[in-house]
Amino acid sequence: MENAIAIVGMDCKFPGANNLDEYWEILKNGECVIKDSIDDSGDKNFVNKAFSLDNIDKFDAKFFNISKRDAEYMDPQQRLMLESAWKAVENAGYNTKNITEKTGVFIGSGISSYLVHNVIPSLKNNGISLDKVMSQAFHGNSPDYISSRISYSMNLTGPSLTVQTACSSSLTALHMACRSLLTYECDMALCGGVSVNAAQGKGYRYVKNEIYSQSGHCLPFSEDADGTIFSGGLGTVVLRRLEDAIENNDYIYAVIRGSAINNDGSEKMSYTAPSETGQTSVILDALAFGDISPESISYIEAHGTGTSMGDQIEVASFKRIFEHSGNEVKLGSVKGNIGHALAAAGIASLVKTVLCLEKKHLCPSLYNNQENHQFGLSGSNLNLVSDFEEWENKDYPLRACVGSLGMGGSNAYVVLEEYNRKPVECSKIKEDKTVKFLKLSAKSENSLKQMKKTLYQYLLENAVDDQVLNLIYNFQRETFSCRTLIYYQDRKELLDKLKEDNVENDASIFEQVDNTQEILNIGKRMGIETSEVIQICKAIKNSWEEGIDIQFEQTVPSTVMKQPLPGYFFEHKSFWMQPESEEIIETAETSSLKEETVISQEEVKLENYVKEVWTNYLGVDEEDFSTDFFELGGNSIIAYQMLADIEEHFNIELDVEDMLENPTVDHMTSIIQKLLV
């Protein structure tokens, strides 16, 4: 397939869904996850409905080596995309440490509402000048840095850019990623979109003739539709050229056959109005790029916002292209389930459609089973999906169009196709008498415990070949300091040890071992002087868990296909600047950031002052003062800011090398003492 791109990894978070499985449950069950708003009003036009994401204040700052203070200033859009990108790469079966190919990052994003609703009000209420923290606030909240933050954290060296085309941002980012792959600008790409409202959960005021729903329901293409409701979310997909993905035995969710972007121009009613001509053109361009005939399309995941003008123009463009194809085309929109996710709307539609292709089922589109008769769908070959149903097309592979339309006329469309593979069935997984090893590691004991628990539950419900487990967990996962290594012969033993791994009480008895020589060779390389397999296994386990690097021989056959398996468990803590007047900086009553406060040398001991500077800029606690500045998430920009404060306070001159040479509180205190003398 010429110009084909494989989707090999995914992750998402949308209202009511924190992962792919939860998202699929919402979709297949036809649920709308809207809730009553957290506020109310006596205004008769107030609509007390809202979509919300779970835990937008939570983040594993320590995992990404970001200081507590930086994490507080950072827009949740950046934080959540960092975690999502990591999850998507692991879902694709890749270890970030082993990625040598040029990997691009393309993310669609909107503005930071966190800066407006939280950061600036919090600084103002606490008497802190924005100038003092401009760097942290700017880098943490400007959408420009979302992609490069991901590239830096994973050492990805391909193109890295943030895309902003309003509601079509994430599909436009996907299109640009595909073009980058096809021109060999990169060999793998992470792309997606994010939109998080820091003030989520609140209702809204309905205004006649605007796009908000008066009823508090988003019902695309329905007789009852009266507008849309904004929400939020994020999603990430990992892309590779199809031939490369096949050669590398990647798990392929679906194939992108074509994509296109355009703009409506001015030949339409107004700047914010959609254009039938523009939408028709972009769909035809996407089909033509993949050499796909309209007759082969059996499903369209529309932009479908629930507005009368928008839905009507979309249907008109679909009719121009597909009405004469002779085949039935099903139509749907995810906005009935999760609302309009703005910059993440396109990735929400894409992930939904990819899951439908993977599982060969279509999910109901919520329209109260009352289609809008003005659109003329009745009697045409375009039909809304009303039930969870099997997706079939006798004449062609399963193919779908996915669209996203940005207010202002920036349109994006993608053509998807199913990818058929041979899944491993339970009955075909043959237990043998070899001893297998399984490595799991994390940055904290709690994360490791949760990872074991998640994998245990997953293996109870899913059949996974031991060769796949070996490939993913022993070779395609990064190694961290908290570790466990499990040795086992059969599935029951693996499950038992995942549930309770205790080497002292290990009752493993290997009556027959088919790979004895392999185990003996590992023991010999480690200097273990015994020929008992069980004792060698215990020694291997103890050594690896103590931090000794043990490399197993990668004997996985080249025919073994990767599978999406449970990944890292992030240990979340809340990082949230409150807009109300509240102490957000855990420090002494005096702060070097407050302009009105002057700390004299006579009032505060030198060491305490240095500790306060550390606390103000890094958000550290008492037990962190002996820790290296960089281990606490410090960087060169923060170092310059801290030095500037110290220089101004003591009227001395410092060199940045003073901070870099031995970046601890004690060392900085001693340097200041010498200069003051």
Would you kindly provide a brief summary of this structure?
The chain has 677 residues and is α/β, with parallel strands linked by helices. The protein is 35% helix and 15% strand.
| Biggest sheet descriptor | 11 strands, mixed
Instruction: Write down the overall geometry.
Output: globular
Radius of gyration: 28 Å
* Assembly classification: single chain
What share of residues are in beta strands?
15-25%
CATH architecture of the largest domain: 3-Layer(aba) Sandwich
Unreliable segments of 5+ consecutive residues: 582-603
CATH topology of the largest domain: the name is Peroxisomal Thiolase, Chain A, domain 1
- CATH domain class name of the largest domain: Alpha Beta
CATH superfamily of the largest domain: Thiolase/Chalcone synthase
Cα(first) to Cα(last) distance is: 74 Å
Domain Ketosynthase family 3 (KS3): 2-418
Protein name: Polyketide synthase
Keywords: Transferase
Organism: Streptococcus pantholopis
